[in-house]
Structures
1.
Amino acid sequence: MPFHAATANMAALLRSARLLKFSPSGLIQVTRTKRNGPPLGRLYSGALGGGRTGACSRLIGPASENASSSRVWPYAVAGVRGYAMATEKKDEASVAVRSKQAQQFDWALAKLDSSVRRTGRITKTLLLRIFHDICRTGYPSGNQALLLLRSCGSLLPEVPLEERTVLAHRVWEKLQELGAQFDVSHYNALLKVYLQNEFKFSPTDFLSKMEAANVQPNRVTYQRLIAAYCQNGNIEGASTILGFMKSKDLPITEAVFNSLLTGHARAGDIESAKNILPVMRGAGIEPGPDTYVSLLTAYAEKGDLDSLKKTLEEAESADCSLMDRDIMQVIFTLAKAGHQQYVPEMVERLRHERGYVPDAMNLCLSLITQGQEDTAFHILKNFSSLHPDTLGTDPPNLGNFFLRHCVNMDTAVEKIRCYCKELQELNLHTAPLIFSLYCALEANKTGVSLELMKILKEEGLPVRPHYFCPLLNQHVKDNNTAGVVEVVKGMQELGVSPDAETLSNYILPVFPSTEAARQALKDAGVPLESEDFLSLEVRSLAVSNLAKLYNLLSDPSFPSLDHSNFRGSLILGFRKSDDLESMVKITELLYKDERFTNESSNPAEGASFFLYNLIDSMSEGEVQAQEDMLRKYFNKLQTQNITVSVNIYRGIRNLLESYHVPELIKDVIALVDPKDRASIGSVSAVPRVTGIEGKVLVLEKKLAELKAENKPLSSVLKQAIQALCAEENMQRALELKQQHEDEMTVGGYASLINLCCRHDNVEEALNLKQELNRKDSSIVLDASKYIALVKTLSKNGRVEEAVDILKEMKEKEVVMNDTHITMLFYTLNAVVTKGGAPVIRRLQDTIFTLGLAKPSANLCSPLITAYLESKDLPGALEAALECQKHYNQLPRIHDILVGLVEKGDTELLQKAMDFVSQERGEMNMLYDLFFAFLQTGRYREARKIIETPGLRARPGRLQWYAEKCIFANQMEALEQMVDMTAKLFECDRDEMYSYILRLCKETNDWEKAEAVWTKMQEENVIPRERTLRMLADILKNNGQEVPFEVPETWYEQAATAQQVKSATTPTTAESVTEYQARLLALCKKGKAKEAYGMLKKADKKGVKLTPAPYDHLIRALLAEGAIEDAMVVKDIAVSRVPGFQLSNIATSLLIITHSKKGQAKDALEKLKSMLQADHVPSQLAITRLVQALGNHGDVAGIQEVESLMKGLGTSLNLSSMVFVNNKALAHIKNGDLESAVEVLESVYTSPDSTSPSMSFVFRKILEDDDDKALDKLSAMAERLANHFACYRPASDLFLQLLDMDKFEDAKFMLARCNALAEQKEVLLSYLSRKAQTPGQMGRIKALLSLIPDFTEKQVLYPYLLKCHVLDKDLPSAKALQEQMQEEGMVVDELSLKRLAALYRDAGETVPFPEPPESFKFYADKLRERADKAQMTAEE
């Protein structure tokens, strides 16, 4: 069958004049269908008020007539649907594009998601802001389009239904103009919005539009079209689609029956509606809560209270638990249908479950939007019955949202007054009238605001000047002098005089001069003799005319006015002015005239503070730019005998030093009184201290030399012992200690003790510890050394001695951090098999009693593990309960509960649940029981638990169990959990479905993944970018077509089965819109040259496109490096589209292309112009530009870019080393090696240095064979290592030498700086990195030959085996496995699984049982083991 044959048949069938009449009972013979679980129909918590009709939703709202088809779509739907298929090769630029788009979507989703989770709704303002932000970036992704469309329905309860639909059409039209590709999920989303907004449209035309756009409907589409017919009471239309679904063998779900029930009711046939329930049961689908809500809604529309009550009883007897939000649907329908008299009885049925408040708020908002304020107010008053904690306000301010929406919907002021009065009488709100006024002012409703102010005045409440500021603000913006005067007159009528702030910010700016304002206000009857107006006049002159200000202030008749009233304005005026003479005169006036200071201070002190505040208010750049003027200013002040105190001088000096203008300090010091200058001292620069150059000999030789010279050798001895410990050479280390026992340091003893513990040599470890105590009993070891001793003693049965070590830790106040706490956990865990529960309990009690560590579930769990491994469930439960009583921790309760459920021990299970409920709350208890039932396959019991009224989502707990299912490959339990949580309050449905997709990806189950996608549409879930990418990967990996736009497929090479139709120019049969869509599709598939040819031909024929195709073609060409062609396209765009500008993405790509071509200056100029236009470049653009400048030796250019980025206000996640490394390379390029060393060395010698990597610098100079630079930087690296104990640069060089196959150089460097062998974290990271790529075994062997034991064999061997598997080297892998067995090592499961795959690939039989679990399961176990090994290693 052709692609769209089914759609065409459906559309034709609906257009047929002879509609067939179907009986629902005859149609619905559902085979192989069971009840599909609870309906999946709400997006988030579901805001009330819109028609919630559609697939998997509940139906509300009045019946409506069919609309004219002309109103369905005010624009054409065009464009060939292009299926994006991922390919392997990805261009660097496309990464930046995708990254920015993904970040933007994540931000938008997070904002909307946060709003919905908090309130159950979103605001129109927020939605429009996100819409404009998405449009501004250029081409919107399919996922962004879906997010916007789905937000235009019932999630906007404060917006009228018609306005919501207009907004949805606006979004659709704009996104299509920008080139967004729509698939079936977008059409389904639009359908859902139509249903929620009760929009009249023709399902026939809707299908035709889909057919024209080459988009095939799916089951969700047909379900929602049925709902659309039923919303208008058109059973015949619904039956037609139902028949088509049956012919296509599409399942008839509970949602379809709910729609039919509503359809019969709205057609006036309530009996047929009621009979839908037995028809459902006959079809094998048990009516659920949604079905009963649909029936209740039908009765509510008719005002049939008796049937409402009877149906509620039937639902209760059928074990269908109706939630508060279900009753609220009925309340809304009653009010909207004019049956408000029945609302109180329904309100009494509300149980105030958890989540009641946001749902009830949304009900009130929807009612107000529909003009049902009185009903909404009745619901609001019902809030008062809640516990105060639920309201969360003290004093109470209940009803803010209600009053705000009443004001916004232009509710009569007298009505608002009555609501406010009743709220205050009921003690639900402390100041409702004032809040209503605030809302009116915020909405700029002048008439309502003035009316409310009059009411406030009548009630005896104050009306303050700032209340009028919002009303004045708009007049100021519009420069409306008359409007300002009218508002001021209104103030006078209410007896309110404007204060200084109101005058300065909201009245005076609208007048051309102060004199004009004075005259106008005088005519309006405003008194002008107040201090506020006087201050305002001074402030105005201070920022505009310092000469006039001086004349005014120096007039003897000018009254006293503390200069703090106008200091800010005066400082601003000084910073803007170049009238030096007036500045000096005014400063002198402040210094000498007592009128401008308060009684508690003298004028000289006030003027001094003014000078300090002046410098403090200026930025570094401002001070540097005006250095000469400030010098003249200070000098003139000195000539006027103006002085400052020493403290003020020091403050100004510190500011000038921080601004890097030390020369000005000399001019400021001249202002200090000569007799005080002696206490200041001279100003001099402290020379920078640099490290001493020198090289260190091999440690053994150095020891011998120091001993021969009779010099102290303790430091070198310590280094030697630590080096031997790193090599695990215990015997030689002990010998060295024996030879130089008198010179041994604490560090040497600590390393030896740790080494003996690692080798399980408990006697030697204790001897060393006692020897150390004899030398100095006050010495405190590092916590890790003590813990190593405790572990070794405990494993060898010497528990009391281990306890003594713990007591010593307490006595010596050993500091413990998180790493040490983790080490304690592993210590206790290691004793599980050795000593059992009694030993662990002894150690655990000692640790907690002494206060060495705070009790945690992690530290308590080894005790429970000991009981569980011995199959002692009662003992495990008792131990867990004791932990909760004593330490408020409940370790491994899940495993205990699972064991009890499996065993069927109901008595112990009840005991556990009662205890958990009492100690940790009922909700935690319910989750614990829910997970236990899921784990043991008792799904019926689990469903009853999770459907407990009032239960809300706990994301952390749900994620924990989902990860557990994925880890153990338990698809059934995971699916059940996702299905059961569909109605759970605040449950993140995208997150839940993503868990199933993750498991589908691991098991390669594309059919289940495809079913998940359909179910997500049915539930109206907004998928995140990562969810779509995961689903697309699963489908593509199995050769399936991806039915949506994949977010990451930008500028990738074509790898799709379906080729995009090529065309040269638009024909009469093809619109320009369709042509644009093909052009965009070519760009996205990496066929930029072909698209470029199309555009040039079209341009010659005068075809004019929208901005989006031009911008995308420019991006595609730049991604291929075709900068000249891209500029040609830009010229065409400028000529065709007035005001055309490149988008942020395109400009960033242009910077990248210039940089990669070596045109760094052009790239820098483009960056400057981009920032001047307030556009933000991509991270990759900045990185490539800085690298290009570094290659050209342009240090100043790099510094300029760094300065620009600091002024940008956002970090772009750029590492500071991008600038540091490339500045160093630029200096090297210029032959200035000293400066390069200084730049790098300053980073590593800084006190707050994090030892970042400089591998990039070493790699570049090695690639360039720059021996001179290499010698200089290697000397620096060794100096930092040997004198500053900073080993990162030396480690980077060492590993780069290995990477460049310079083995001898690496060996020589290790000999010079043998502490590199101790940098285990860096070395292990290198090993892990190399083990990811084939052909790296040679480099790993080179590293091992130089540092054989830098990590434990348990960690090393799995990496080596992984390398052999990547290299497909079966003989070497076999040899390694045999070696591991000979050494008594157990080959971990992940290695065995890899090895088994290698055997199969080589066509050989696997000679051992292959581990049954997934790779991820065993990878996590190996990772945990590696972490453990790293923690116990010497740092």
Note: The mean pLDDT is 78.
2.
Amino acid sequence: MRNIIMLSLLLITTQHKASASKSVTASLKAKWQTTPFLLETSEFIGEDNNEKFWQFVDTVKELTVYKQGESVRSYYNLIIKKANQFLTDLQVSLLKYALSLRFYSPAVHAFQQIASHEPPPKACTAFVSIHSQHSCNTKDIKKLLKSAAGRPKPYLYKSDHIYPGANKTDVPVAILYAEIGTKKFSTFHTVLSEKADGGALTYVLRHFVANPKQQMMLLSGYGVELAIKSTEYKAVDDTKVKDSKTIINAEDDENDEVQGFFFGTLKNFHPDLQDQLGELRKHLVDSTNDMAPLKVWELQDLSFQAAARILSVPKFDVLKLMRDLSQNFPAKARSLTRVAVKKEMRKEIEENQKHLSETIGVHPGDGELFINGLHIDLDIHNPFSILEILRGEARVLEGLHNLGVKGGEHQSTLLKLPVNHVADSYALDIRHPAIMWMNDVENDPVYSSWPAGVQELLRTTFPGVIRQIRRNLFNLVLFLDPKEEKSVELVKLAQLFYKHKIPLRIGYVFVVNGEDEIDGFSDAGVGFYRLLNYITDEYDLSQALISMASLYNRLDEGETLTTDTISAFLKSKFPKANAERILGAESEYDAKRKDGALFYRKSGLGALPLALFNGVPLSSDEMEPNELESVILQRIMDSTTAFQRAVFMGELTEGTDVVDYLMEQANVVLRMNPFILNTDRKYLDFTATPVVDDWDDTTMFSFLDSKDKTAVMAKKMKYFTNYDEDGMSAVTMWIVGDFEKASGRKMLLGALKHLIASPGVRVGVIDNPSGRPSEDNTVLYRAIWASLLTQKNKAAAEFVRKLLREQSNQLLQQGSKMKDLLLQDMDTDAFEKKFNTLEVNFVRSQQLFCRDVLKLSGGQGAVISNGRILGPLEEQEEFTEEDFQLLEKITRSGSADKVKAQVKLMKMKPKHASDLVMKVDTLLTAAPKGEVRRDVNFLQNIHSVLQLLPRENEVFYDVVAIVDPLTRAAQKLSTLLIVLSQVVNLKLRLFMNCRAKLSEMPLKSFYSFVLESDVTFLANDTVSAGPVARFIELPESPLLTLNMITPEGWMVQALRSPYDLDNIHLQEVSGAVTAEYELEHILLEGHCFDLSTGQPPRGLQFTLGMSRDLLMYDTIVMANLGYFQLKANPGAWTLRLRKGRSEDIYQIISHDGTDSPADAGDVSVLLNSFHSKIIKVRVQKKADKMNEDLLSETSENKGLWDSIASIAGGGSKKNDEEKEKDNVLNIFSVASGHLYERFLRIMMLSVLRHTKVPVKFWFLKNYLSPSFKETIPYMAQSYGFKYELVQYNWPRWLRQQTEKQRIIWGYKILFLDVLFPLAVDKIIFVDADQIVRADLKELRDLDLEGAPYGYTPFCDSRKEMDGYRFWKSGYWASHLGHRKYHISALYVVDLKKFRKIAAGDRLRGQYQALSQDPNSLSNLDQDLPNNMIHQVAIKSLPQEWLWCETWCDDASKVSAKTIDLCNNPKTKEPKLTAAARIVPEWLGYDNEIKHLLKTIQEDTTTKGTTPSQQSKGHKRDEL
């Protein structure tokens, strides 16, 4: 009975507590309408596999009919069920997570946007576009196809869904815009897929929903913070907070009450309920939102106490408790001070921290996450990028699982193998006797005075100076045909390098005619070579090559070498020489003439002339004689850096042969075959386990998908082998070809010859006959296969090598029987029996594999090396023995040898082991290149590590989290780990990385991370509105400010909230505070460089638009990293240089990361994800504009920024704007929160009252409240000013601030050069809480005497404040010297001068350096320009331009031109009180604004529109 009483009391208490609490909710919606789950699901499936995408599309082609009869939940489940046919259980979990994130919604909407610009024909639910002609009817397709040839083909994007039909390139392209699952789609799809299969067209599908749901789509994957604001200066009217110290007291005084319970008394009455009463008391203490400040000694151990509390609960509750404590820490802090910390736990944490610091560089308090050893940087990664990582890992993990590597040590080791991915540039080994070296830097006397030590590389020099070191660090090899015109200039240039003592070893390979009957009188190349040998014989090779340069000097530009020139040169230089003996048919100087040509042919290099720098071939553009000099010098500078690193790391020492060191690098090969070294690589997928594994039933085989076909091939394949000593093969090659053709036979013969000298290689053979397989066209292949099935390896290989020779083929053609070609040591009976009974069905299956998986036509060849496909090979393309050597080297150096070593430890049968090596190597090398995986281990894990084991016999992710439970990382990570554990099978280790001796509150905010593992539904089976951040049971006393913490590249704005989100005071709120935000833009970011200078083109402007409107947004390129950003949203965008000076002076040369060809002038970019897109653009000045400077123009072209239309709707015409431009007063200000917006309106009114010139206000949009943005158009209309809202996202590369006030300060000073159009010459910043009493035109017209900006110095006339003037002593006094410290409440900026001297870039650079120290720049907007006063001069404005009572005496107030409501550190008087007391006119302004706002409210209630809505046609409202 007593238990029931106690439980009731507990329930009553907690219910009363909950009902009394206030809450805050925040949500974020997309700017576009909700997209159907079915289309998002198709994108999920299509991302991995185009084949499965189309199979899924076929399966669901009329699925939407079920929408009507089913609930939303049932329809969703039906979509998941259909997707399950093509996905594994793990992939289905990831799909659900992706749908809850709406991960693929931007991809679907991007196609919707493209469709809207076609535009769709009226009343069409689906339509086809064939070369820009549209139709809603399938009957019109034939007619549109006929006329298509006369119209240009449409541009296709990388993410387009192209139907895998006949894949012809010379056919029309039909783009279907339709919604998958609808009847109309099904009709079109049937017709188009048939035509695509028949080779009549290329069929492309793009999503198009004819009638999208008018429903908002709430997003997730972001954080919301309620930060506790300092109320030192009472920026709002606070009601007095009661001191709550009486509620919770020390635990040892049991007689004091807790929430009405006297526990001392209760324990005396009920001694048998001691434990339960203790639990109840603990619960009440915990749930008390006691916000009284903690003493310093109570703070010290909080992190360890939180860890102890977290690890004291059952392991499956640990993450939830960590989330609760970290995200609600300010309210939980006091309860943690009572937690005891065990010595064992403290000791274990310290030991683990020491180990982590030594092994992976993690320090106490750091938050780190590792997934399968991959480091996930929580500052960079977000739930969207983590989903991509999970998907990428799933491919590898499921692959290994399917291949039989299931968890445990082997999985971990294989995952962490270092895979040498594709090198950016391969080098040819230049240690070849065919190269004739003109000089040797190490040994030639001419260089003897130079130092020889490699340590010289580390000696400092002036930038651009080439170090003269007596080592062959830089080697240039020229491959030349002496007769070619280009050779003349190249030899002259090489001679120039030699003459000027550039530390470059120069070598030549002369490629001349090798025919024996050709002599030096009939061929200039042969004559040149023989003359060279003669001079070498008489003197030495170096002298001979130097003489050759003087031979070429006799030729004028455009001339080529002739036999007459050679004869004349010989006669003049060596008059006694016998020309016949040197140049004639019986020449004694013809030795090794063929060597150069042979080396050139075997090297696989392209067309002559060619140059190799340290073995790396130069491109044809770089080979231009006028370019080559600068290219070589640049290469020398670039490789110097690499050598310096090698010396510093001890890789290159004094005893190292530099050339050997260079030639032993991983990227050095013996042959340059671009086909093999190509960076764009395709791989087979060996991870399937097919239900049927027989290839004799061709019909059954034809129904298998690509993965299953590949698995059958791998299982049935037989091999010619040359095993390693362990009986295993590291490299498996499949040779594909038509062996009735000479090219097919030659390629297989080359592979088998290579096999003889290559232990650890095996070769399989696949037939791909030109016609339908029959006994006649598969004779050779059936003989090969029969020998593999019946003979021992050595005999089979020997027989097949004989069979492949041309004389054997001729014998067979002449009627010889196969048995006549058999070798003596073969089992002839077994062979003949098998050969004569082999059916050709399996060859038909092989041909299907070639067609469907390898994408080969009949008769085409290919080579597959450990799953990597090299093909198709055309008949004339050779694949030689040298190519097989190169291919083996590349395959082994990837990961094959490392995988083999690991598989060897598994103790498998050699055949199975070789198969596994091939399959695992394919899986690992096909995976995208990622970071190095790290081994994270803890010395002990009993007291400080949570360990959760995965479900057995399932694929699992190995996750290690290292976190201090009282950090922002814990606030984010706790939710993330909870969701991850719901999505995937986790092996989790969570280490409490606590900080000791805290001196301040570790967290000063409440936090919610908005993330769900699946789509949520309501009780009535309808889908919920979406995820929101909910804060419940918040304490009412603190003043809170709401911050949205979103992924990089998101521009978010507050859309609706009647509350002041900057100053949330729950004591003044009844019920819940709701805030609705909108993802207004996803950024397109980029870096731009001038190709000529390598520098960013400062002031260059780009425009971004869509096909219908090419000028929607503008931006300016920064000098810092050439950075620019543009606002965008999902869809297809076009980037261009802005019309005017940018387009006149510059042109776009190339670009990366875009969706158009690299050299296209108009840059197309498809934005189709929640990630901002980052591109790289290279520009160059036009030939006739080389000496022009973008920023030197005294006045901008008229109308340059006409495109940026004000949303003010103040109807001035363009011509008026042009006239007024020079006279406009541009005022910039920032404000956040309703109080400062109230001040801002009053400041604006005071500016307008004191000037007669036109005024344009510029406001930072990022932090304005919805109510301000709604009312500003009315105010603009009433008072006749213009305004513009400017926006800029803090660049990711610039150190972030976390506190809202400091972020706003940053925006005041860090982005002045890019916030405003180039047409704005001067801008005046005025603080929101300022009142203007003079005409600011005076300040605008003030001469700044060459400084880029002018600030007012702080007053020093109010003597009683001397103790607060921090700039009068210490650092500031010594730094400023005789200069004054200036206040940032008012300043004028000459933007032309500011940009000209790159002031913005300098300020950002200094900010980046200083902000490393969190204690520096305490007043960021003020300290930064004052700190930079020596580099960026400040013009001190006359004192009357800024008066503030805190620092200026009363006598100077009379002459004040502006009054600033500075905070007073002595009195801490609230702003509102101070304003009414100090500025007599302030109340009048305030009442006038209040009256205006009341009028606006009445107006909108009756009319329902605002000026901004009336002028909604103007989309380009900000820069």
Note: Residues 759 and 881 are 15 Å apart (CA to CA).
